[in-house]
Specification:
The complex is a heterodimer of chains A (550) and B (1026). Chain A has helices at residues 2-17, 21-31, 37-40, 57-60, 62-71, 74-82, 85-88, 111-134, 137-140, 142-163, 182-206, 224-241, 247-259, 282-288, 297-305, 311-314, 365-377, 385-400, 449-464, 469-479, 509-514, 516-526, and strands at 92-93, 272-274, 294-295, 315-316, 348-349, 360-363. With 550 residues, chain A is an all-alpha fold. Chain A starts with a helix and ends in a 24-residue tail after the last helix. The model of chain A is unreliable at 1-32 (pLDDT under 50). In chain B, helix 5 (397-403) packs antiparallel against helix 7. Chain B is mainly β and 1026 residues long. In chain B, a hairpin with a 5-residue loop joins strand 48 (912-917) and strand 49. Chain B is built from eleven helices and 54 strands. In chain B, the strands form eleven sheets. Chain B has a 22-stranded antiparallel β-barrel. Chain B has a five-stranded mixed sheet with strand order 10-15-16-13-14. The chains are: A mainly alpha (550), B mainly beta (1026). Chains A and B meet through helix 1, helix 2, helix 3, helix 5 and helix 8 of A and strand 25, strand 26, strand 27, strand 29 and strand 30 of B.
């Protein structure tokens, strides 16, 4: 009511004095101006969708991001791999006492680190693949869709191997997503690879000369034949993961991979390594700029014991303390390291061979030879397990520019003992430890399958360095090989056995807040408490003292 | 009217100009009456409308019109009484003149009586329906600080002021009546002469984590010259600020600047110098040095420790020299004000230097028979800050200084902070043994990690006001505030590899220009009503446009030629195609625009009841793409002057009760409603990861306040009381969508953050004789913050202000908690409360972060006193912030490195005494000092052990002045003062000053991460008027 009076008086004033400034300002300010608001509220430092239509950038430019997030940049790589599976696989151990030496490396699982694995897998890979799907890629560009599925399987197989049951088949269908059992996830992964191989094979047959993906390809420069090889090799890897729990499916999928006309990765030219688009090796970055990583004691103990010709190519000698300078000495997992520079002089990756822009290898060809060796060992193929095993080693030697020499016939060298000159000290338990394994290098057809499997997995483990920590931890859990030193200090509060070693990591707390019912059901499927001591579905070895794979 | 007010007025010693006081005892009946006319003006020469003109001893009278003119029939010898609220009553005996020009002076004893309110509108104190507090310019300039807002500390109730630890010229955090916004700014709106001002720092912004980063280069308010300020009015509540709209939900600080005065020509000179020394240092041990190969001081007991005071080798005395001069003069038609000020300040860390020059020119002209007034005010500010110290772990000289092994002299590292790198033809590298990201050689940082923050700022503000008649005027204002910032950081080859890529040094630079354009149009009207009611108000429209443009030059891959700090020397690509690792990026435009219309009506009844109603409608560009672009909000308030309405005891000179309710809506930040994609490295695109929410709407703050203003004993005692409560609904909350949606971030409106509290002020003129006066005043404020609700679909998920990272500190909002709660780790305890000790013998931290405390003060007290004796004056201010807890990560690191006094004492005592239990259930009473502090201290240790009371009581300032007697001279006055700031801590339990903050944004509150210590300032000042 007052407002009406208000306006009346003002109108009187305007009429009386012929001033229409108020009206003018109102007209100028309001009638015409809010239509610019959408322009004002668009960030000019970004890129709109319409600007990305040319050259299929609107789909294709999602791929560099997906590919980089297989491993992630240094921050993500450090949390998702370097401070857990890289350590659990014996490759690395940080010389930096993160969180006062109470963190994933000594089994005190840090929720904020574990949740990053989800972020990387779901947000930066699978979510993006779904976005691509919504843009019609599945039908409009089946070749691009095939690549997306291969990348998704690469990333998400790692997520399920970390956790067990995960959300997969229903992802993107609602605000909260039910989890699948790990068996169901594996079936989906195989089905996704079916799609990829089918799509790409058909495209290559129809368009043998076209490389529409070249601009966006960080692995094979648009060569779909290579992508098919990688997809088949990935299938073989996943098939082998489940051999102990579901041997029928494992064998069927392995044979499907081996027999696919597209073939497998065979030479180092086939290695599935990520490079380009400004992506730099997170290992190089963490090791040189942050000085947050060193190699693990398990790795140096095998390389030292085997007098491995690759050792000087893979890693560099320790520089301090003086007693170990010039030797190859890693840090044992779970060592309560003192603050820098306490352990920063221990062996590092060789940053001459592992450079800033060296490819981050998702899968080396050598790994495939060892997978084929295991398939032969299991009698699934008629190939010679020994030939595959030895080809795996020589392929790896070539990859590192090393010469095998008499390595293949060395039937005496075994893992070396480990001595840490900095322990025992007043405050740290003794990290020095005797060798865990007596396995030798040379193939021994008279040995048991179990012994030869240890040989195969141990050599595969060496060959997958430096990027393969994630897969190496999976294979360690599946087979119990290579024999790895247990953690020096176990801060799990009794949930993880030092002897059996860590079997998985816990679901991130964000899932308990955002997706509570689903994660509760997942824990039921897991069949044990949601901690690092509960084995995942395919993990039948469970860290036993004498692994049994046959 | 009421007898008591008549008595009150007449007994008010200064209310009547004695010079004009004339006693008349004439009989009006026998005199011939004739009309006289005249104009009444204020102290600046502007006409004063509405002045009451009466003939003493009669009921006859009139009021001046819109031009300040009056006409009245009088007889010779009659005494005309001119009275106007806020001005000294004036009596003039009618003589033979028929034209009078009357100039009224503001009432010096009632600064509060005319108050500058929202939009620069002056209102009588009586009619205000909300609390406000005025601080005069003199109070701001008595003891100068390098950011003028620090001068308000302790003087105003309900204001929490936290200076940042970023050295001279750093920003300051000002919170009025508690923090209200979970994600937006909680700082008030600054308004200069009715026009909103930008208060941003340079492109670096504020640190967001404990690592810190590049220094901020100072906020906007610190750029002003305090000598230009006439007064500052603090409008704490939303009711006071509702007319300013969304920007003012956190309250408003109104700055009124000086201008020339009619009929006076004055020159004021002022000069002030302070010498600044660190007011505290951490406590160190001197018995134990570093073991071989270690940079931590956990070695054996030293036979002969070096007791060099390493801190004194680094810290220096800082200083602040401010010189200013202003010229003010004015005729009836035009008034001129010109000022220049230079501030030179040096921080206590070597190299830290501020240079600031302020130029102000203001001209006010009156045209068309005083109907048209044009007022133009121009400010130019040039500020250079060199080597502002880094905050947090990185680029901070104090980490290396404090963590340096004890028992050794740091002098060799000072004298030779750089040494030659082998094989590089004399190229230098730093001389420092510890190789870790958190520490470098302190002198390497001050010499070889320099930073430069330059600011050029121009503020032009013009007002054109036209008096249509005595009940209507129009006003158009335009303001441009252009702030050009340039920041550069040079990191020489040899700087820690985490901080600089490559081995040849690195270079980063940002250039940013922020332009704020503001314009408004206001019609002020007074409705001529008959009888006891009066109605006035305003109707207006405004537009505010903020736009930032700029470029960021990143470090790329470091430099090509070592230590050549130019853009073209930055390595941007070693492999990959064009644009791989580009180091140049566009700063977001941060363009936003708010358009508004607003109105306000004031209705009064018989000078004792006042009603104010306001309504404002905003259109905000930041809500484009939603249906909520337009939103409106009202306020309403009432005040009653009890002493005029009722008969009260004579002891009560003035009594007012007031109450108000207001809503203020605050829109979301720009671009959130329209998430788009961004270019990544090497030609990739980072596609949008924000879950689109097309329904975002403004945060709505609803606030109530009520209060009482009293003056007793002939105004000698004043008392103000205010109660308030505000609830901010529809908080703009960031959440993490379920991972499988593919989006990493979402935004929604939800929640309710409540602030309630009281403010009190008490002032008393204890002594008031001709030689000796003593005035004392106290202010008290209490605020209780409560997070009533956050995201209802994830009620246990906190809103994170500062995340953990690998640290011991997290600052969050949790439902049921308070703003900025500090979370960290506690000791794992057995059911009987014993600290659990692990297999290594060290205490175990529990695995989930727990509430450790809240840093906000529970209540604040300020106590100021002013004495004057003849030509001497003495002022001092004591203030205290009580309650709250803070975390010292500095202490955590000093302990874990074995350099702290506590770590030494523990070793002397054979370990740290605890009530613990080991895994086998045996009692543990002592833990080896190194084992204990390595686990409990350190970057990610057990914060529970490092929480300290934030209560601090200090002698904030004191000054002793002497006015030199002046005989007849061109010099009007000279005054010398001895001044001091932050002089004595009467109470401080934390190992640092809990008032300082690492960030003036919402995060990093209540944590000490090697914050630079506060300083104790002692000096002298000099003022002279001509």
């Amino acid at each position: 009511m007052k407002k009406i009076n208000f306006i009346k008086y003002i109108s009187t004033g305007i009429n009386t004095f012929g001033k229409c400034a108020l009206v003018a300002v109102c007209v100028i300010a309001f009638s015409g101006c809010t239509k610019n608001f959408e322009k004002i509220n668009t960030d000019n430092s970004g890129v709109t969708n319409s600007q990305l239509v040319p050259d299929n950038n609107i789909i294709g430019l999602y791929y560099p991001g997906i590919q980089q997030n297989i491993f992630g940049e240094e921050n993500d790589y450090q949390l998702c791999q370097n401070l857990n599976s890289d350590c659990y696989s014996g490759y690395y151990m940080s010389p930096d006492p993160f969180r006062g030496n109470i963190n994933n490396q000594d089994y005190s699982l840090v929720d904020g680190w574990n949740s990053d694995v989800y972020t990387l897998g779901y947000t930066r890979v699978m979510g993006v693949v779904q976005t691509i799907e919504k843009k019609g890629t599945r039908t409009a560009s089946p070749d691009f869709w095939g690549i997306a599925k291969i990348l998704q399987v690469t990333a998400m197989s790692r997520v399920t191997d970390y956790y067990g049951p995960i959300a997969y088949s229903k992802v993107g269908q609602g605000a909260t997503t039910p989890y699948d059992s790990q068996q169901a996830v594996y079936n989906e992964l195989f089905a996704d690879l079916d799609t990829a191989v089918t799509n790409l094979t058909a495209y290559v047959a129809a368009n043998p000369k076209l490389t529409p993906f070249a601009k966006f390809d960080m692995v094979y420069a648009g060569n779909y034949a290579e992508w098919i090889k990688y997809a088949n090799s990935l299938r073989l890897r996943l098939a082998m993961h489940i051999v102990n729990i579901d041997p029928t499916t494992a064998k069927a999928q392995a044979l499907k991979a081996i027999n696919d006309p597209g073939g497998l990765l065979t030479t180092n030219a086939d290695n599935a390594g990520l490079t380009g688009y400004g992506y730099h090796s997170p290992i190089w970055w963490i090791g040189t700029s942050w000085t947050d990583l060193a190699v693990g004691a398990s790795l140096t103990s095998y390389l030292n014991g085997y007098n491995d010709p690759r050792e000087s190519k893979m890693i560099s000698p320790a520089t301090s303390p003086a007693s170990i300078a010039g030797q190859y000495v890693g840090i044992r997992a779970g060592t309560p390291v003192s603050a820098k520079p306490g352990y920063t002089g221990y062996s590092l990756p060789n940053f001459t061979t592992i450079g800033e822009y060296s490819p981050m290898i998702m899968m080396p060809a050598a790994e495939v030879w060892f997978l084929k060796a295991e398939a032969a060992l299991r009698g699934w193929t008629t190939e010679s397990a020994q030939t595959d095993y030895e080809t795996g080693i020589t392929t790896s030697m070539t990859q590192w520019g090393a010469s095998a020499g008499s390595y293949l016939t060395d039937n005496t060298s075994t893992q070396a003992n480990y001595v840490d000159p900095q322990t025992p000290s007043t405050s740290a338990p003794n990290a020095s430890i005797n060798a865990m394994s007596t396995i030798t290098i040379a193939w021994n057809s008279g040995a048991t399958n179990e012994q030869n499997l240890e040989r195969i997995i141990t050599q595969k483990w060496i060959a997958m360095f430096p990027c393969g920590g994630w897969e190496a931890w999976t294979e360690y859990r599946r087979t119990g090989y290579p024999r790895l030193f247990p953690v020096v200090v176990n801060n799990s509060g009794g949930t993880i056995s030092t002897a059996l070693q860590i079997r998985r990591i816990a679901y991130p707390s964000t899932e308990y807040t955002n997706n509570a019912a689903a994660v509760a059901a997942a824990v039921t499927m897991l069949g044990g408490p949601d901690n690092g001591g509960t084995p995942v579905w395919w993990d039948t070895n469970k860290g036993q003292a004498v692994p049994k794979n046959f | 009217m009421m007898p008591c007010i008549a008595m009150g007025a007449s007994s008010y010693p200064n209310a009547t100009s004695k010079a004009n006081f004339t006693v008349t005892s004439v009989s009006r009946a026998v005199k011939n009456q004739a009309p006289v006319s005249g104009v009444v003006k204020d102290e600046t020469g502007s006409p004063l409308p509405g002045v009451s003109v009466s003939i003493k001893g009669t009921t006859k009278g009139t009021r001046t019109d819109g031009n300040g003119a009056f006409t009245l029939n009088v007889a010779p010898g009659d005494v005309l009484v001119f009275s106007y609220v806020g001005y000294v009553k004036k009596e003039v005996t009618v003589g033979s003149q028929t034209e009078y020009v009357i100039s009224l002076d503001p009432n010096p004893n009632s600064l509060n009586e005319v108050v500058v309110t929202a939009l620069g509108v002056k209102k009588s104190e009586k009619s205000l329906v909300y609390a406000n507090q005025v601080v005069s310019g003199d109070q701001l300039t008595a003891v100068k600080t390098d950011n003028l807002m620090n001068s308000l500390n302790g003087k105003v109730a309900g204001v929490d002021i936290s200076p940042s630890s970023s050295g001279v010229g750093g920003s300051v955090k000002v919170i009025l009546r508690g923090s209200k916004s979970a994600t937006g700014t909680n700082q008030p709106l600054y308004v200069i002469d009715g026009v909103p001002m930008t208060n941003t720092s340079n492109a670096n912004g504020q640190p967001t984590g404990t690592y810190g980063g590049s220094p901020d280069g100072g906020d906007g308010i610190s750029n002003l010259n305090p000598e230009d300020i006439e007064s500052i009015t603090v409008l704490e509540g939303a009711s006071a600020a509702a007319l300013y709209g969304s920007q003012a939900a956190n309250g408003v600080v109104l700055v009124t600047t000086k201008k020339g005065k009619t009929g006076q020509a004055t020159i004021n000179l002022s000069s002030s110098y302070t010498n600044d020394a660190v007011s505290y240092e951490p406590k160190f041990q001197n018995e134990y040095g570093a073991a071989a190969g270690s940079d931590e001081s956990w070695g054996t007991k030293l036979a002969s420790p070096v007791t060099e005071d390493n801190l004194s080798d680094f810290f220096r005395h800082g200083n602040n020299l401010t010189n200013s001069i202003n010229f003010a003069s004015g005729s009836e038609l035009a008034q001129t004000y010109f000022s220049y000020a230079n501030t030179t300040a040096n921080g206590v860390e070597p190299g830290d230097n501020l240079q600031r020059n302020n130029f102000t020119f203001r001209e006010t002209g009156h045209f068309l028979n005083n109907k048209l007034t044009v007022d133009v005010n121009t400010n130019y500010i040039n500020q250079k800050i060199v080597d502002a110290p880094g905050e947090g772990f990185y680029y901070n000289a104090l980490t290396g200084l404090y963590l340096f092994p004890r028992g050794e002299s740091i002098l060799p590292y000072k004298e030779n902070y750089a040494v030659v790198q082998p094989g590089r033809n004399g190229l230098l590298t730093q001389n420092w043994d510890a190789n870790e990201d958190v520490q470098q050689n302190p002198w390497w940082i001050t010499n070889k990690n320099p930073n430069y923050a330059n600011r050029d700022r121009l503020i032009v503000n013009s007002t054109v006001k036209y008096e249509v008649n005595n009940w209507l005027n129009f006003q158009i204002r335009g303001n441009v505030d252009r702030v050009a910032d340039n920041f550069q950081q040079d990191l020489y080859a040899g700087t820690n590899s985490v901080l600089t890529p490559g081995a040849d040094g690195s270079f980063t630079m940002s250039q940013q220009v922020l332009t704020q354009m503001y314009s408004d149009f206001i019609a002020n009207f007074k409705v001529p009503l008959r009888g006891d009611f009066k109605l006035d108000g305003l109707l207006g429209a405004s537009i505010t446009d903020d736009n930032t443009v700029g470029t960021l030059y990143g470090a790329g891959l470091g430099l090509s030629i070592p230590n050549v700090f130019t853009e073209q020397n930055v390595v941007t690509s070693e492999t990959g195609g064009a644009g791989a690792n580009s180091n140049v990026s566009t700063l977001p435009n941060n363009h936003s625009q708010v358009q508004s219309i607003f109105g306000s009506v004031n209705l009064s009844f018989k000078n004792w009841a006042y009603l104010t109603v306001t309504e404002r409608n905003d259109w905000s560009s930041t809500l484009a793409f939603t249906p909520n672009e337009s939103y409106s909000y009202p306020s309403v308030g009432l005040s009653f002057i009890l002493n005029e309405a009722l008969k009260l005891p004579d002891v009560i000179s003035y009594a007012k009760i007031r109450g108000s309710y207001a809503e203020v809506a605050t829109p979301v930040t720009q671009y959130i409603t329209n998430p788009i994609n961004y270019l990544g490295a090497g030609g990739s695109v980072n596609f949008n990861s924000v879950y689109p929410n097309p329904a975002l709407k403004p945060t709505d703050t609803k606030s109530k306040e009520a209060g009482l203003d009293l003056r007793l004993f002939n105004n000698r005692l004043t008392y103000n009381f205010t109660w308030y409560k505000s609830n901010s609904y529809n908080q703009f909350i960031q959440y993490t969508p379920e991972a499988s949606t593919g989006y990493s971030t979402g935004y929604l409106n939800a929640g309710n953050i409540q602030n309630s509290g009281i403010e009190m002020r008490l002032g008393y003129d204890i002594l008031k004789s001709s030689d000796f006066t003593w005035n004392t005043n106290m202010n008290y404020s209490f605020n209780k913050n409560k997070i009533i609700e956050l995201n209802p679909s994830a009620p246990t998920t906190p809103v994170v202000l500062t995340g953990f990272g690998n640290n011991a500190y997290e600052s969050v909002l949790v439902t049921g908690g308070q703003f900025g709660d500090i979370y960290g780790y506690k000791f794992e305890r057995s059911p009987t409360g014993q600290i659990e000790v692990g297999t290594t013998g060290a205490p175990i931290a529990n695995t989930t972060p727990q509430l450790l405390g809240n840093p906000n003060p529970k209540f604040q007290l300020g106590w100021g006193n002013s004495f004057s004796y003849k030509r001497f004056s003495f002022d001092f201010l004591v203030d205290g912030k009580f309650g709250g807890q803070v975390l010292s990560m500095t202490q955590m690191l000093l302990d874990s490195y074995g350099v702290s006094a506590a770590s030494g004492a523990a070793r002397d005592a054979g370990g740290v005494a605890i009530n613990g239990v080991n895994p086998s259930g045996q009692a543990v009473t002592k833990v080896d000092a190194e084992t204990y502090y390595s686990a409990v201290g350190g970057r990610s240790g057990i914060g529970e052990a490092y929480m300290y009371s934030a209560t601090v009581v200090r002698l904030r300032s004191a000054d002793l002045g002497y006015s030199v007697p002046i005989a007849k001279s061109v010099i009007k006055s000279i005054k010398f003062s001895i001044i001091g700031g932050n002089l004595i801590y009467f109470y401080k339990k934390a190992p640092y000053d809990p008032e300082i903050t690492m960030s003036t944004a919402n995060g990093l509150s209540g944590v000490d991460v090697f914050n630079a210590p506060t300083t104790r300032n002692v000096g002298a000042s000099f003022t002279a008027s001509f």
